[in-house]
Amino acid sequence: MDKQDHKLLNQTILALFPRAEKYSEFHLENSFVDIANLSTLLSIPVNQIIYGRRGTGKTHLFTYQSFKLKQKGAMTVNIDLRTVGSNGGIYGDKKTSLNERASALTRDVLIYTINEFLNYVLYTKKEEVVLEDFEEIYEQLHQAINQIEIVGTLQSNQNEKHIELNENQESKEKTTGNIIKGRPYNRISFPSINKLFNKLIEIMKIDSIFIFLDEWSEIPIELQPYLADLLRRTLFPIKKISLKIAAIQYRSNFIIQKDSHSYIGLELGSDIATSIDLDELVVFENNFDTSRDFFSRFIFNHITNQGYNNDILQKYRITTSKELIDIMFSDQDAFDEIIKASEGNPRDAIQILQESAMKANGFKISQEHIREGARQFFNKSKEYNVRAREDAYPFLQWIIRSVIKERGVRAFLLGASRRNELIDFLYSNRVLHIIKSGIIDLDNPDRRYRVYAIDYGCYIDLLRADKAPQGLLSYKNERNNVKYIKVLENQYGPLVLERAVLKLEEYRKSMNK
Q1: How far apart are CA 120 and CA 414, in angstroms?
Q2: In 289-408, which ranges are E strands?
Q3: Is 107 in a helix, a strand, or coil?
Q4: Res. 28: pLDDT tops 50
Q5: Contact assessment for residue 277 and residue 427, using Cβ atoms and an 8 Å cutoff
Q6: Helix (H, G, I), strand (E, B) or coil at 448
Q7: 313 pLDDT exceeds 60?
Q8: In angstroms, how far is the first alpha carbon of the chain from the final one?
Q9: Cα 44 vs. chain centroid, distance in angstroms?
Q10: pLDDT band for position 187 (cuts 50, 70, 90)
Q11: pLDDT tens, 53-82?
């Protein structure tokens, strides 16, 4: 391939979109790469939470799965929680009480859902459903969701059970007659909503409905347990409805535990399954072959379905992912470098690849192009975001000194039950990466650790100076010689743990000097 053709090939990379919502449904269907039977897991009619940080493919996964389920005759509802509702500003308005904000959010989610039911009937089941019957129940359900208590006094002979949330974060059932005073606010009547939903589904003649709630972590975190609780009471009891929630683990809060017997929200593992974590699936250290296979197919599928400069692919008869990788990269080390640099994150991989393709221009993409592209991407995005938080950047620099410079490695251990706000912040911004969970302390088997790896961008310049980390973890043997661990095991003794566990209290001491 000559210089001009390499330039055209690299331009196909520049035409890619980092975000799934920019693509057509056709592109998302044909570019999806299934891994670890994700598609099968999501097709099971149970309520599930899918964890994954930004860029791990949650939206792509939901869109693809929705398409496949519709092909099998199921109904799907896709809800982007960033955009739901006409008055989204109320959700973050701290001047408005929690019960009003939570009720408004739940109302918007439920109304969006039944509007999708209406669209489904009008455009898919029009010939099979008696519209008059549907419209009657639809209106009743709409009214049940939108019940309000009116300023002044309202007489009613009907008593009704409903759930209210108060300022003390309590959820309780009341039986009331409608003699009410105070300003209007939304009230959710769960028994009537459950009953009307079941009637509506019966009229629709549908066997299964999958509701995909994307961008859960964009909801104010103090509202999340309330929305979870209200969904548990309204939609979870309906047998034909399955909810799938996409969330960022450390930006999510599904439960407020009141005491040992009562709670607000969702009890993970009991009310809802949490079997899928996208962050750990394609980390290079966990499985070299799986990572290479995933990213080669990921790049190939996106480029061949983009339709930009596809003539160059036809000219060289590129029909497989291996053929594309061989002609695009200078060697296997260069391709492996893009996987390492992205730390298993597909969106980051696209953006680093685009920076690298610009550097390569009319040549094959080399390891040095990727390193320079990764440095540019890190400086313009991740480092910028970390610097925006005053206390985060010094903390990151301390981690880099303690782990990379002093120990010569790029990973460390933290107790699985230990939470630190700055660690969570760096993890959410993809500057730290969890590459393995559940490491066991051999001397204390009840203790578990997570392995955090430092982002490639943090030590990119050390690679050029031949000062790169020598492994993931290190330890000193009986002769006091440093040994490096490159492949992680499931358990370690004190020899490794003493050197591998990051002691956060040392950072606090250094800040007090």
Answers
A1: 48
A2: none
A3: helix
A4: yes
A5: no
A6: strand
A7: yes
A8: 60
A9: 19
A10: low
A11: 999 999 999 999 999 999 999 999 999 999
Name residue 200's amino acid. L
Strand partners, 448: 440
Mind listing the pLDDT tens digit for each residue in 105-136? 888 899 999 999 999 988 887 777 778 889 99
Q: How far apart are CA 197 and CA 275, in angstroms?
A: 28
Identity of the amino acid at 450: R
CA–CA separation, 449 and 459 (whole Å): 24
Cα-flanking dihedrals φ and ψ of residue 142, to 5°? Answer: -60, -45
Please state, in angstroms and as integers, the Cα–Cα distance from residue 471 to each residue in 61, 397, 488, 501, following that order: 33, 19, 10, 15
In order of 124, 134, 330, the CA distances from 120 in angstroms are: 5, 12, 50
The pLDDT of residue 107: 85
Query: Which residues lie below 8 Å from residue 288, measured CB to CB, with a gap of 6+?
Result: none
CA dist., res. 303 & res. 309, Å (int)? 9
DSSP-derived pairing of the beta strands 491-492 and 432-441 = parallel
pLDDT in tens, 133-142: 899 999 999 9
E strand or H helix at 440: strand 432-441
* Identity of the amino acid at 187: R
Domains in the chain (CATH in brackets) are 3-16+283-386 (no CATH), 36-129+194-280 (3.40.50), 389-512 (no CATH)
Residue type (1 letter), 50: I
Amino acid at 294: F
- State the residue for tokens 């006094």: 153
For the chain, percent of residues with pLDDT exceeding 90 = 59
DSSP category for residue 403:
I
**pTM of this structure:** 0.85
Cα distances from 190 to residues 194, 222, 274, 394, 463, in angstroms, run 6, 22, 25, 49, 59
Structure tokens belonging to residue 444: 């204390």
DSSP string, 130-163: -HHHHHHHHHHHHHHHT-BPPSS----S--EEEE
